[in-house]
Amino acid sequence: MTTQLLRKLFTVEQYHRMHEVGVLTDADRVELIRGEIIQMSPIGSKHAACVFRLNKLFSDLLGDRVIVGVQSPVVLPTDSEPQPDVCLLRRKDDYYESAHPTPADVYLLVEVADTTIDFDRQTKMPLYAEAGIKELWIVNLNDQCIEVHHQPATDRYAEVSSYDRTQNLFPQAFPAVTIAVAQILGQSS
Predict the structure, then answer these.
(1) Top CATH class, 43-185
(2) What tens digit of pLDDT does each residue of 94-108 get?
């Protein structure tokens, strides 16, 4: 006899309500992915350092042209509210106090991955493509490269490139801004 496990899926509204009433707190470190509440991995020092570098680089290079979001929620139409490591957002006078950003507000999402590389590629990347996020970078700390995804199509990106620490790249929305991959990856391991 086989037992079928049932899952309870949640909407973004239900997820927010759980935070409001204290069922979930900021200490829980969770995100909503396709209606499921997923425990986020602990952040190691290499991961955190990379996020700090990205925040500094984007803030210095783009200044007031964007809002740099760091591990902040983005609401997607698939009952999802991931918290990408870094995102470049359209400027908004209220700094998204009235509502979390949606795909229309996003210039670029960045996921920094070491232990989460498979989850970022197999779960988050298709989710972002499906939502129409125009550009995704996966900073692969294990292989010391950055995977750049453009042209979202259904559940994947039609264009994927990989950059190593000897190369430069730029955010698609800001082609005049050049960033050395080595600046993002930091000192070689």
Answers:
(1) alpha beta
(2) 999 999 999 999 999
